[in-house]
Description:
aminoacyl-trna synthetase; 11 helices; seven-stranded mixed sheet; single chain
Amino acid sequence: MSDPQPTPTSLDYSPEHLTQRFQTLQAEFDLGLREASTPEELEDLRLKWEGRKQGRLTLLSSLWLKEAPAEKKKEIGQRFNALKDHIVSELQRAAGSRGQNVLDAEAIDITQPGTRRRLGAEHPLIRTWNEIVKIFQAMGYSVGVGPEVETDYYNFESLNFPPGHPARDTQDTLVITGQERKPLRDRLLMRTHTSPVQIRTMEQQPPPVRIVIPGKVHRNDAADATHSPIFHQVEGLCVDTNITFSDLKGTLDHFMKALFGSSVKTRFFPSFFPFTEPSADVQISCPFCGGKGCRKCKYSGWIELLGCGMVDPAVFGFVQQKQPAYDPKKISGFAFGMGIDRVAMMSYGISDISLMYSGDLRFLEQFA
Ligand code: DAH
């Protein structure tokens, strides 16, 4: 087999020169392929070209492709891909046909290890989503869904965000174009939270209700390590006679212990949401340091995880237009909402939310 030429680190980028370089490389590979006569030699050849760390394709990609001036990248990329396709398909063909010969020549060795098929794994976000849902299912909650393209009425108005209310500013909204001629309540937007499904659920069925609603939500937020314009929430809603704030506290305390371990404590702070009164933010004692203070909890010992509260009677008022049984004098309820991405990032120590949407196998394989 001929020795590879050292991979050059600088290049003349003229088309003629590139054609010549890539032809030389292909010729070199073809020669190697003709000379490889045993499965071992074929494997050596494969490693030499396709090896992950030191393979020539990897070196070519990092030395030529990445170093190339921006305006040349496309052309070099195309040539590189053509070479790579050639090498990959030729090696596959050779392995197939020679493998056949080997099989013909020798009996199958059944002690050989089989072909390993790589198992896929649940995405950390979906895993967290399922864990959360399961805990509520075990408490008798059902699971609901709702549309991601929502009307202004369900996303805001029926949740007691009247038109022009400043609380709307807390959820920077992506709206669908061409809606101006419709009355505001019918205009379409990308839902900014899963809360509209509370209203849709109650409109569909009289009380009692115990439901969790996981789903995707959208906001016009600039992406950074902890923000993404698309993220996920789980909404919870419980409505019945005599539901009190202690039911809310007990339910969420149980939930946090089930998710993070029985030593985790919860604490509730006054907050504001238009659709709950009173409203609270819930913090848990840091499951990593036990509350002593560490980097994960920014040395405070506590981590804020969700918003919640008692369903505002005004919300029941909107629902009553379709389901009169939601009479705030007879029934009461609590609701809560949390970000699934945040919980997943915390549970798995993921520092950048964009990793969850990158599809990068180096990230995903860590969860396999
Ligand atoms: N929808 C709120 C948000 O996206 C979260 C939330 C807070 C949901 C309190 C609730 C709740 O159901 O009771 O910011």
